[in-house]
Amino acid sequence: MYINVSFYHQCCICTKIDFVNFFFLLCFRFFSPLSLVPYVTFTGLGLYRLGFPMMAKCIEIGLPALIVMVFISLYLNRYTFTKRPIFDRYAMLFSVASVWLFAEVLTSSTAYNHKPESTQTSCRTDRAGLISAAPWVYLPYPFQWGSPTFNSGEAFAMMAASFVSLFESTGTFYAAARYGSATPVPPSIISRGTGWMGVATFLNGMFGSVTGSTASVENAGLLALTRVGSRRVIQISAGFMIFFSVFGKFGALFASVPLPIIAALYCVFFGYVSSAGLGFLQFCNLNNFRTKFVLGFSFFLGISVPQYFSEYYHVKHESTSPRWLNDIVTVLCMSHTTVAALVAFILDLTLSREDDATKNDSGLQWWEKFTLYNADIRNNEFYALPCRLDELFPAL
User: Fold this and answer.
1) Using one digit for the tens of pLDDT, what is the confidence trace for 124-139?
2) pTM
3) Whole-angstrom Cα distance, residue 303 to residue 111?
């Protein structure tokens, strides 16, 4: 029954995104490089729990995966001479294939037969049961889990989750633009992107996928690793994803990769996304104490506030407040990206807009020329939609 609720929840998300779209379009016209530093940095840094903590659940395959990944992508080219950048572009494939084979050898050699259940679940390559349970061919269809139901309290909680998703997705947009050597993303493109996310989330709810759509932070990190900023690559990847979702046995094969190996990749990908945010510091005056305060304060609260809500909030307020209200507050305040971005934006908006000198310290004078789509002719190259869709969805 939980899945039945998801359709109307995600319909509410689409409605919420329509209103939030307008809000984002206004707010992002006032962003500066200074406020984007904690925003984009915590888009990657806030996902630290998916890195080493998850990798350490099976350290004997997670740590080798991390070492092999770093060695192939950064060190191997020192000892080989190739005309094309092979190792950094295919480092992920080489790393996953080699360590996955190593995990298969450990599993086949009965190394985990007498280990605790949690260790076997994380380390063994034959414990997931995905391949045997997956059908050969499966075509999803609308309302496959039954007729939708609605709960107002849970719908509001899902709206809060959509708000957090928009924040984190937008940070990913800026990171992808940086690593794709594109111009800073104009606010109208951000608005258009979040609108399409709302449409995708609506379809997710209709077809019963439980969760909504969001931008992939790890793909932005993969873009930095491979240095391949091509739409054709994304289109081909989307085709493979559709193929593997329809033909379940093939998709289950790749889904059965032990999670510690994936967590090792996250350590690299999320690190790249975080460094994209730090890259905006080059446009700020780090000798200014206002700049230092905005950065330090937003970074500290971006870590400290979610930590409080993770450890103490439910203990103190679980029995005194409605559950739906607790869910909304918890979802919003446990997001490192949302907290850091809001704090930095408010401080930057109130402290760094007094005169030309303070605007220059926050990088705003350099940034203002990118707030309008037509202000830079290169935007058509980077953000134009294919198949003449720009006529239906024009950018401002």
Assistant:
1) 888 667 777 788 898 8
2) 0.86
3) 39
